[in-house]
Design a protein that fits this description.
Blueprint: H1 3-20, H2 24-30, H3 35-43, H4 50-60, H5 64-69, H6 85-91, H7 106-126, H8 133-140, H9 144-150, H10 154-177, H11 183-194, H12 200-215, H13 219-245, H14 254-273, H15 281-296
Helix pairs in contact: 4-10, 7-8, 7-10, 7-12, 8-9, 10-11, 10-12, 10-13, 11-13, 12-13, 13-14, 14-15
Length: 299
Amino acid sequence: MPDTAMDEVRSRVRDIIRRSGWSQRAFSAEIGMEPTKLSKALTGTRRFTAQELIAIAETAGVTVHWLLNGTDDATTVAASPRTDPRERARRHTVASPAPGLTPDAGPEHSRKRQIIDAAWTLIAERGYHAVRVADIAAVCGTSTATVHYHFPTLRDLLVEAQRSSVKQAFDRQVAVLHSIEDLHARLLRLIELQLPHPGKLRMEWSIWLQVWTSATLDPEMQELHTESYRRWHETMQQTLVEGQRSGVFGDFDTEEMTKRLTSLIDGLGIKVVTGMPGRTLDDMRETLHSVVARDILRS
C-alpha cells in the first residue's frame, strides 16, 4: 500500500480512537496491541499488520475495507455486503464515519461486542441448543437482563454469531489479500483462509454448520445464509475473473468453476470438521491445490 494511502489509514484509526472516548493506551489494550506498537503505527514508523487491522475493525464496529479505503463501496479483493440505499446513505454521512463509536459510546459498544463474542464462542464450542443466556451472561460477568436488553432471544444471538462470522471472514480476506498482486498466489491464499484450521477458523466452521442446519427449517435463517454465502461465492468468482484477465488462469466458465471450487471446499471442510477418517487438513489442501494446478492455471 502506498505511503499516502497508509497515511489515510492512520488518520482513520486516530479518528476512531478519538470518537471511542478511550485513551490511546486504553484502546491498545482493547485491541490486544502493545501501546508502543500502536504509537509507532500511528506516527508512521511501522505499518499496521493484517491482524492489527482486523482487531481495530472488530473493536470499532467497522470493516477492514473501510479502514483501508474510507468507504465500504470501493472495489476490493472480496465481495461487499449488499445494503439498501438508506443504509448506504447512513454510512456515508460525515457525522458517522465509524459506526457505533461516538465520544460517549465506547463502553456501550464494547459491552454489546463482548456479548456477541461470548455467544459466538459458546455456540461454536457447545452448539446452539446447549447454550443458555445465563451461560453468556456468566462469561461476560453481567446479568441475563443485560444480555436480553441487547438481544431479546437466543436466536437473535445465533443470527449475530453468523453475521460476526461473515464479517470476520470478509475482514480477514481484505486484510490479507489486498496486498497480493499475483492472482495465483492470491487464489491459494483465499483457499487457505477458508480451511478449517484448529482454533478460530474451526469455530467459524462450527457456526456455519449450525446455520446450515437452521436454514433448512427457518426461512429467515435461510435468507441470512443466502446473503452470507453470496459474498463467499462472489469473492471466489471475482478472483477467478481477475486471474483470467491477467492471463494467469486459463479459459473456463468462471461461474461454473466458482460453484465447483466452493462446493468442493464445503464438502471437504465438513469431512475434516466432523472427523471423518482419512480426511485431514493437509489432504484437503492438497486436493484443492491439485484442482487449481490442473483446471485453473493457464497451461
